[in-house]
Amino acid sequence: MEKSDYVEISLPIGAEHFDLAIGLLRQIGYESFWEDGDTLRAYLPCAAWSPDQEDATRAALAQILLTPPTLQVTLLPTRNWNAEWEATLRPIQVSPRIIIVPSRYKTWAHSHHQIAIEINPKMSFGTGYHETTRLMIRLLEQVLSPHDHVLDIGTGTGILAIVARKLGNLNPILALDNDTWSIENAKENIALNHCHDIEVKLLDAQRDLPAVLPMAPWSLILANLHRNLLEHILPLLRQHAPQAQILLSGILKYDESWLRNLTCQLQYRIDLLTKENEWLCAFIKPFGTLNYTMKTE
């Protein structure tokens, strides 16, 4: 199956601005990024590029740059970009126990005590090269129970669901994404890693979660998303899965106060909080009886 062409936006903003720019651009729909020297290259489907998207891009960059750069826009066929991007990936050790190995390095030697996760990333998020994926995996090692009922929202490559299974979780795992390409990629990676009882579904988190959450007694929900989406779905999780613990990331460290305020409103306690570069990851637990009023559109 071929995916539609992508647009590459070249942003000569300097490496010191990359983390903040990626966080802001991901919130307005950019899917992938390539840090090329002092130039950040951002990618999104051609169908998503429009004058409104260009304005939103400029507005996002204006939050961190005194003078936003000229946007250099290039039409890039998916096939060429995908091959070029995958060729740059190397095995990466996420923790002393877990190493992520791109498929082209499947014979990579690793210690007998390490868990090697084979990932064929294609265009999906979750290769281990982004801080949020690494942060999620490290905390998942700490908090996962063999008997947890795990729900992975925004599964991307399927890496977090795969890690949960490899770490010894015994129950069926449900992995969700709203992107057909990611669903296919996650299924492929689950098969590559010989993981069983991981169901992958194409669903929209904001629209479909109220129907999904009653399906099982979820005890651990994984949500490596962006701030805007977390702001919408955390109230849903608290309402429809009130006992579930949540491991979340996709938030810049500058948004920590926002996260603390939101979790306090929803009566979650931040049990663990870790950071890498500009990103943070939190493990939150519910407490008390929810008195939060859901907003309606």
Automatic annotation (TrEMBL):
Domain of life of the source: Bacteria
Catalyzed reaction equations: L-lysyl-[protein] + 3 S-adenosyl-L-methionine = N(6),N(6),N(6)-trimethyl-L-lysyl-[protein] + 3 S-adenosyl-L-homocysteine + 3 H(+)
Family annotation (InterPro entries): Ribosomal_L11_MeTrfase_PrmA, Ribosomal_PrmA_MeTrfase, SAM-dependent_MTases_sf
Keyword Magnesium: no
Major location (coarse): cytoplasm
UniProt xrefs under SUPFAM superfamilies: S-adenosyl-L-methionine-dependent methyltransferases
Primary enzyme class: transferase
UniProt-annotated location(s): Cytoplasm
Molecular function via GO: protein methyltransferase activity
GO cellular component term, pick one: ribosome
Entry's Gene Ontology BP terms: methylation
Function: Methylates ribosomal protein L11.
Similarity field: Belongs to the methyltransferase superfamily. PrmA family.
Name of this chain's protein: Ribosomal protein L11 methyltransferase
Organism of origin: Candidatus Thermochlorobacter aerophilus
